[in-house]
Amino acid sequence: MAATTITDHRASTPTQTQSQPSSSQNFSTLVSTILKTSGREPAPLVGPSTTIVGDVLYVFGGRILSRSRPQLTSDMYALDLITRVWRKLETRGQIPPPRYFHSVCALGDSKLVCFGGMSPANTGAAGEAKATESLSASQPDQSEVMVMSDIHVFDIPTYTWMFIPALNPPEGRYAHCATILPSTAFYSAANAVAAAVVGGERLDGFGGAEMVVVGGQDSANHYIEEINVFNLRSLTWTTKSPLDRSCGAYRSVVAPLGNRLSVSQIGAGSEPAPGQSDDPALSAVNGSSPQNDPGAMLIYSNYNFLDVKLELQLRLPDGTLTEKAMNGPHSPPGLRFPNGGVLDNHFVVSGTYLTSSKQEYALWALDLRTLVWSRIDAGQVFAQGSWNRGVLWNRRSSFLILGNRGRSLVEDYNHRRINFTNLCKVDLEAFGLYENWRRTSSPAVQKTFSPAAEEFGKMFMNMPELCDMEFICMEGESIPVNSRLISKRWGAYFIDLLSATKHEPDPNGRVVSIATITPQSFSASAPVGTPHSQILPVTTANYNPIDRPRSLYFPHCHSVVLALTEYLYTGALPPPRDPAVMAPILCSLLQIARPYRIEGLLEATVERIHQQLDGKNAAAVFNAAATAAGSGSGIEAEDYTSNMPPLPGSVEDEEWWENVNIIGLQKRGLRGLMEGRRMRERGKSLGSGRVGEGPGMQGTFGGTVGSG
Questions:
Q1: pLDDT in tens, 41-90
Q2: What number of CA atoms fall less than 13 Å from residue 670's CA on the CB side?
Q3: Is 0.90 surpassed by the pTM of this model?
Q4: CA 547, CA 543: separation in Å to the nearest integer?
């Protein structure tokens, strides 16, 4: 590999100007929060990778800033995004050579894949598996570096690196873009899939199977205009295709399309096509699931920052590139070193915006259905300090920006410095951008079922001859159910309710066993000292058929209990705009999801509310979310509900409740109320007497309710 001297590739060196915070107070001050991190944080770095897996941010490599000479590192740090505590991981195995301006992509929920970047010239030939320690001052001078094309896989549970030898690697590069996508490859050889087992560990696992590398720069700082694909099951470089433009980390972002939209929905409009639902699970029933297009991805570039040019390409699973024209009266400025990803129906991108008169960190979102841009107004949170690296946190519908609120953005940008002292969290859910994280998690926590299973559940629900008990509503209506299925889907809380039942004779002298949900039910628990193993497994088969409760009373109306029953049978709520899930019903489900301890119901309800929230029901949603945030959490349980919410008031409660996005839903309802009030005041000032006709905040998400 050719050697080159470390450069920072600065397109320009802007000067600092003082920006004055606006004195106006608006909704944006509620959606962005600056948080302090603790623990052993990384030193300020140049060119490190930042990757989120679940609720943990991993930082690898980079160049430690030094006045005497550059110091490259191969250290791995982890930030728990819930506790915001940094840790330096003690990694082992075939640790990659120190590097910067490389890529690290998440492979499923347990591995990271590192590719390329620039390493010290004395590292050795590309592809050589070489364990190394972090650089220290006693090591040789690293002013000479070389571009790399090697691949290393990091196993998160064991902190172990593994070098992946591959024949015919592409040209070495740095400052490239990369992502991992589901594979559409077909294996004809008997041992093709088995080839992915190296050292007893599978590399495919849950998640994608192909790493797509886009662009980058070579040792002479020239752009490499090609796309390379590495198959993580066969462990081979499979394709190389030309790219008719210059892409790289300085100007571009690549992101998987995800499972929310299909390729045909990009630019097709906000309303779903005939026969197609805006709910991905329901679309699958009609054969139009986004999963029919695995492996699609977006390539976004902005360049020529004095007269910015924006480009968006859609790469199909077969490698075909399609240009997509973006619309609307507003578009992002030139964002340097952009970062982003796809959340819900939007492509969210952030980056540093620098001109001679303005310096700020900006956040924008592109509606992929309409291809119209909107600015995400985070308020004055970025008016002070240095903010220079953003990461999309899909699981919590948030965008995180790393920085230091006490430093200068311009000075740090000129040195390509990334800081890790402060963390700014922008709540995207408050703007209507929300994804049910269970849909993209490991199957063990999805709590959703296949389209065929949902259809079977609906059919089963309408077969009273298979039911052996009933749900009683507050007005006396009854819904027949199968207790065996309910116990499997609801879990231990349902069994505890039945265990606490009282047997009372009816007027005819017969014994009728009825369990009743009351506020006292939420504080009741199994007898002290009773091992949970004695009440497991979670099934009604342990009851004597004569003594087993035959009815369960709910203090709710029939429509709410019916929607709850459908969720228990199918793992899903009725489709959006269905009369069975109107706003009042959803608000009731929101309030009972937590105390009834039905895993997955909370996220499904929040998702459906976001799809239906508008100016008419914003007040009801705000009130329901506020009430739900203080609701009880049901019978206290231990081992068999270890993943369920903690009790209100406990140490863990505040952090857990913040991270299930109920606060974001409450903020979005509040935004609707504020926008409605603003429109009414504007209507009065115009003397028109008509409400809601004025334009919103142009080019921002603050203008309309339900923009998600």
A1: 999 999 999 999 989 999 999 999 877 666 899 999 999 999 999 999 99
A2: 16
A3: no
A4: 7
